[in-house]
Amino acid sequence: MKEFLYIGYYIDTEGEVVLKIGTTNDLKRRRYEHNTNYRKSPNCTMPKENTFEYLWKLPLSKYNTLRYEDKNRQRWIDAEIGRFVEKDRFVIPRNLAEVTIQIRKTYTIPLSF
Question: Is the pTM of this model over 0.90?
């Protein structure tokens, strides 16, 4: 069974963009979980009128999704693309034009909010 490595975002109650890298085997269910959980989160709370949106996704094996999520999260932390929040979220500047994901090749994901 394939899993997905994904990048998504939402706008929090302060108007800041919160970027997330993650893995799932069910994108629809995971979006619902993010919408529910981030509305209750004490950090970077999602307002009720906003929703979590996917920017990019790639199907991979379960082992590879977890491995590439960890590696790319650390690359983003090292590159200081934004303020790291909890396990896998980043508060990023609105003028950040793109992020990259490196797997076997490098994927450039344009950001527009």
Answer: yes
